[in-house]
Amino acid sequence: MASCSLPGFFPPLRMREKLLVDGGVLAPVPSLLLKEKVDFIVGVSLESAWVPYQETKNAVEVMFMVDRIRYKRIFEETIKEVNFLISFPHAPFKWTDFDKAEDFIEMGERETLAKKDEFIKIVKRHRRRKIFFFFLGRR
């Protein structure tokens, strides 16, 4: 499975004559693909708050900053296709905090319940049958 193959962290997966990496490298938000097949998209974003500039001390930090800029640009464009978004911009976690899964789940439950009325209103307005849930972002 290539979904965890992130350049710089984990090596790509070799399958036949191709090297596969996480889809988020080029399409962190698959909403453009989904829009062709479904009528309503609920997105869950783990994108953290944007830090516009940080002093860089070495080439690795520059590489990470460039990647954040690339990711933010793609994210902002593709998120426009989402009908309803649940996000956690001030979450005290990073996407690499794998040991905090329970905390992520609790936070998700709280945020989802807080937006329940808004969600119901939007769904009623659309009154469509095809609804697809997916996770957005990776940070």
Features:
single chain; 139 residues; alpha/beta; 3-stranded parallel β-sheet; two-stranded antiparallel sheet; 4 helices; 36% helix; globular
Summed up, what is this model?
With 139 residues, this protein is α/β, with parallel strands linked by helices. It has 4 helices and 5 strands, in the order E-E-H-E-H-E-H-H-E.
Number of DSSP strands?
5
Structural class: alpha/beta
User: Using only CA atoms, what is the Rg?
Assistant: 17 Å
Whole-number count of domains: 1
> How much of the sequence is in beta strands?
15-25%
Largest sheet: 3 strands, parallel
Give the SSE order as H and E letters.
EEHEHEHHE
Plain-language structure description:
This protein is α/β, with parallel strands linked by helices and 139 residues long. It has one domain (27-136). 36% of the residues lie in helices and 16% in strands. The chain has helices spanning 31-35, 59-78, 101-114, 116-126, and strands at residues 13-15, 18-20, 40-45, 84-87, 131-136. The strands form 2 sheets. The protein has a 3-stranded parallel beta sheet with strand order 4-3-5. A two-stranded antiparallel sheet has the order 1-2. The chain is globular. 9% of the residues are buried.
